[in-house]
Design goal:
- This protein is α/β, with parallel strands linked by helices.
- The protein contains 4 helices and 7 strands.
- It has a single domain, classed as Nuclear Transport Factor 2, Chain: A (Roll), CATH 3.10.450.
- This is Nuclear transport factor 2 family protein.
- It comes from Shewanella youngdeokensis.
Length: 144
Amino acid sequence: MLFGVNTAAQATSEHDQQQAAVLLDNLNIYSANADWDNYFDLYADNGIFIGTDVTEHWNKAQFEKYARPTNGWRYDLTSRTMAQHGDVIWFDEILHSDAYGVSRGTGTLIKTAKGWKIGQYHLSFPIPNKLAKSITQQIKAAAK
């Protein structure tokens, strides 16, 4: 299911684009339902997740250990762009959650014998430029 997708799939075949969009849509559906078996099946065995905290650079096993005890998290898709080069698709999506508001997911999908899999997913909070210095000062202070 697509939620208001604005897909700019430059050099991405329509079939691959559809498969990639379904995978990323399912990622959000599975996480919202804490369906961890299906969620982690979307990742390559050597896939990584980079979270919003600087300490969150996890391989698949580490991320599973963090996620499985939780009740999940919900992010709704606002827009997505994709581009493909051979057996790799990179993407950028704008998401919304009740907890955090706007966030951005970026990453790479890798075509494997089992279909498209997440090689890397990175969740971040886009900071408006006018707030950047204030936010980064808070981050510096928290790191001390």
